[in-house]
Amino acid sequence: MTSIRFIPEWEKQSAVLIAWPPGSGDFAPWLEEVEQTYAAIAAAVSRRETLLIACLDRSHERRIGTILANTGTDYCSRVVFVRIPYDDIWVRDTAPLSRLHEGRLELLDFRFNGWGGKYDCADDAALAARLVTMGIFGQTPRVAVDFVLEGGSVETDGLGTVLTTSQCLLNPNRNPGYSRVEIEARLMETLGTDRILWLDHGKAEGDDTDAHVDTLARFCSEHTIAYTACDDASDPHYAPLKAMERQLQEMKQRDGQPYSLVPLPIPQPIRDGKGRRLPATYANFLIINGAVLVPVYGDPADAVALERLGPCFLGREIVPIHCTPLIRQYGSLHCMTMQFPEAAGVSRP
């Protein structure tokens, strides 16, 4: 039998990729504030591993370098700039996913269709192939997969279990004509999974990804899942998140034992200029070497989330990152990053 393993986020990493927002992009009205969040993430990552920064051109690279220098980031030794076109900055969904195939690292390039045809995405759809062609990952092979899948829509325990949501993967705007059985077969074939745990409830208001699992429930280890919870019966999230919580409570590990579940509170509503609620959750954290970067929003629930996540990641520093600027474009910290495992052998293009 062919051995395939989808690599979990907590294993040793070589690099994290981010795509810096350009001055003419969707973040233009809040660019300086957004760039401060990016600089904080850059500092936290580059202290621990290589940081790949996608930028549009030499001028963009110089601007980023100045910002990093002004915030004390030693970007000369641990930061690699990659000049490459991109439509949006949410590389969790456009960069390649990492798997081991017969013990050898491969980068999976799934099709990307702008989260179900919602946005123009020609450059984003080509991002993974272009990154590999540039030689950033050495001789690591790219495997093109004719199937729409975004990185934020799947979680793994590294042991063959995938956690996902039916609202996203079964949505006809992704792979029309595929049945649930056929979608499961593609995940098993490409990710090596032999167990798929489906969440049928829960969505962060303002989320335009059709309920990516990385806003709702995350593996912290093979045995522990942290999840977005709501105890305010007046909040529209209350009923669907309670239903999701009940599903999580019913899920079992391979040995038949229930998962250790860690509820993360949902912050008070943060709204845009038109009064629409933005998708702020603490589940959108990023695990890196020696640390976990956790989005915070200037809310009293920040402290609760940080305190609850600490015991889930013993030996890693819990680093809060102010992410209110990011959710103005409907994503948060995990959405705008992608990690690559130690075997990726990241190098300068």
Automatic annotation (TrEMBL):
Cited InterPro entries: Peptidyl-Arg-deiminase_porph
Cited Pfam families: PAD_porph
Classification via SUPFAM superfamilies: Pentein
Alphabetically ordered keywords of this record: Hydrolase
The name this protein goes by in its record: Agmatine deiminase family protein
Species of provenance: Methylococcus capsulatus
